[in-house]
Amino acid sequence: MRCFFAVEIPENARQSVEELMCRYGNVRFIPASNLHITLKFMGEIEDVDELIRCAEKVKHEFFSVKLSGIDAFPDKVFPRILWIGVGEGNVGLFKLSQELGRHVSRFGVDNSGFVSHLTIARIKEKFSDAEIFSERFESEHFIVKNFVLMKSILNSSGAEYEVVKSFSLI
After folding, report:
1. Helix, strand, coil fractions of the chain, as percent rounded to 5
2. What is 80-104 written as a DSSP string?
3. Could you tell me the residue range of the domain that residue 136 belongs to?
4. Which residues of the chain have pLDDT under 50?
5. Using CB atoms within 10 A as the burial measure, which of 62, 82, 113, 136 is most buried?
């Protein structure tokens, strides 16, 4: 199963992102139902039950997150991925990602280079909506109370995600 661990975005923050998306019709945005903050991409995993057992060992406290700012990978000149940053809650996301990484390390996951972000679009052609970078986007605060294991199903129209298991924080 192709999978990853993520923090889901609550409805109020998702609506703020959707409002932003509506202002830029030339960009092919990710469906709002797919919005999430990836903690660990696992790739193809055969023993999902063991992966779940490892992830259940994570003991991390709730924390607050506020999405803020718009940026791009690899850069704003030739963007391939548009993303919204995490204005508050970076430390909580980083620590959760690191702790999760320690518990699932036997699956060969890389535990370095974490950049907390919310991917909102993938760019395949010349990008002509550079004014999006001057948007002063901010979501309301939300509390991260859990993280999820998501199954990723690739098809011709993009990826579909399905929650396999939810893990509560303390």
Report:
1. 25, 40, 35
2. SEEEEEEEE-HHHHHHHHHHHHHHT
3. 2-168
4. none
5. 82
Residue 28 has what pLDDT?
Answer: 85
Q: What is the CATH number of the domain that holds 152?
A: 3.90.1140.10
Tokens of 149: 């294991």
Name the E strands within 89-157.
Answer: 117-122, 142-144, 146-155
Q: Residues 105, 107, 110, 116: what is their CA dihedral angle, to the nearest 10 degrees? A: -80
Looking at residue 31, its pLDDT comes to 92
Structure-token pair, residue 2: 């192709």
Q: Which residue has the tokens 């506020």?
A: 66
Return the structure tokens found at 83.
């993303």
The 10s digit of each residue's pLDDT in 70-102 is: 999 999 999 999 999 999 999 999 999 999 999
Residue 137: count of CB within 10 angstroms of its CB: 17
Work out whether strand 63-73 and strand 142-144 pair parallel, antiparallel, or are unpaired: antiparallel
CB contact at 8 A, 141 and 30? no
Closest among 136, 152, 154, 117 to 7, alpha carbons compared: 117
* Domains identified in the chain, total number: 1
Strand partners, 82: 72, 121
